[in-house]
């Protein structure tokens, strides 16, 4: 699992909802609202947990047991949640394990990494991340808490904003337009 | 020197079943080698890179059962990067091409793909038993192939594997004609299964003795399954949550009374403590109880349960049982041979769950104790010395103090004397894991007394090369040595290079071994593979021989360098 961040230059094409600024240096991501929240939560987290440097591989509890016993605080999820991810214009679908990511911002980074090429090659346009939930409905990603999202997400699609109109997500988009104005 | 015809010798060999003994027998003379190899059915290969499948097939044409182990033990603790190796695919491919009538395959710490499983399921018409322990790389699609194609399957045992669950219908892939199942363990699978299929499968498996369910199987299904299979000997419960006043729960209580063959109980992957009383009737006969994956059972719940288990021989439990609870175990379970106490909260030292007191109580109350795995917050020399007085039958002694360099909290001394006492009084000790503050002295004791020791795990211990040398020189039967974060370096590594040919493997990580020393070792000992695992991206392998190596894994082999190494492994 790669520990380092994206390492990718921000491009003109990025995951972003309509109405957002498009300055090159601004690493604006689709889930920017939520990710900011997550970051503040992290910095307010219990100091003991944060400052404790955990030695890799200690205590020697095997990783299966760590993931499947209650009380493990190292943040690993109990199971894998592989979902297919398609991106409009990209030739191949990818698969991503939602359980490996801590939140929407983490996911956004991973998606940019997976589809970096396609993002760069596509004509300058905005993308919208949507997902199909357990009921078969297509939902805009980012509304529900992360844990709820990974439980209900069956597949992801990074859709061109231009196609969004025909997809019934119009209402929520407008609602979000309001929040993203800042 | 052969006074008997071959058939007679072969018949005698039929009574020799242990791998060690058969290996010894094959070395006596050419004639015995030949007879032994044609009659050998079961082969154990502790390191899949020590030999090739082709040579295995050539030597043992009558092979029916193969056990293979892949990654080094420390891979369990995330010390071995992904894709290191241990692929079973070449083995299955080679076996499939051959005339081997494989019936049983047991794998541990190997990478298994769906394609391999499918090939396995289609290549061996008499295939009966698949046991996968701590493996990864496959999905429920592969499991489905086994279910669908192995017509005489008796055993499908998946233990603690990382399986990608496609939430498909693998269980429904068992054909209606499959009635041969004796053992089915899918506790490590996470996804939904078709409960009706499961019930039908159990109903048509009259020989089913062992059934371990996963978390999604609810209590009411459990009740129905037990109705169909009261003959079960080993039961792993999935979800055990219900309202104790419900009708379903009453039915469960009633059916449990009929299951008087159950000797082994595990699971409780989801559990409501108030439901535990229904289990008490079967506790009387239990010999193995594993509650180490049961969340939410407090010390009281565990103690109440254990009080009913007078015949228990093996107990795996979480440390929330507490020292007092262990006292109850000590006074109840007089037949206890194996105890494993796991940490319920490995990273929070605040809630001291078990200490040296619990261990002392156990040692005093359970005279038959021979195998221990004990995670605790602290240990004293006095306690270990007492344990050593009380218990002299240990075969396995693994102590893990959660703070890796913690001294004796009473005397502030290292734990050398305590462990010294353990090895001195337990002459049959085969496996030992150390922890706590330890100096070279403990290794002096180990080298002096642990004459039967086969596997030793060391972390954050010792002061100098002398420590490692004491062990290498003294432990004549040593097979596996794994060391992390110890000040052992080149001098220790190179002192007796021939020693490593008598061992299966040596692991050293975050020690003081240099690249140059590893190169020297590799050059002088062509029968060893010396692997350097280097994950740091900046390092180029052409750098200085004085560079300290991060992770080194060496093992004896008959077949030279492996061809499947990833980029970050340097084979010297």
Written account of the structure:
- The complex is a heterodimer of chains A (182) and B (572).
- Chain A has 7 helices and 5 strands.
- Chain A has helices spanning 32-43, 47-51, 63-68, 104-114, 116-121, 146-152, 170-179, and strands spanning 82-87, 94-97, 127-132, 138-140, 155-160.
- Chain A starts with 31 loop residues before the first helix and ends with a helix.
- In chain B, strand 11 (264-271), helix 11 (280-283) and strand 12 form a beta-alpha-beta unit.
- Chain B is an alpha/beta fold and 572 residues long.
- The model of chain B has no long low-confidence stretch (mean pLDDT 94).
- In chain B, helix 6 (114-123) runs parallel beside helix 7.
- Chain B has 20 helices and 23 strands.
- The chains are: A alpha+beta (182), B alpha/beta (572).
- Chains A and B meet through helix 3 of A and loops of B.
Quickly list its features.
heterodimer; A: 182 residues; alpha+beta; Ubiquitin-like (UB roll); five-stranded mixed beta sheet; 7 helices; 5 strands; disordered N terminus; disordered C terminus; B: 572 residues; alpha/beta; 21-stranded mixed beta sheet; two-stranded parallel ribbon; globular
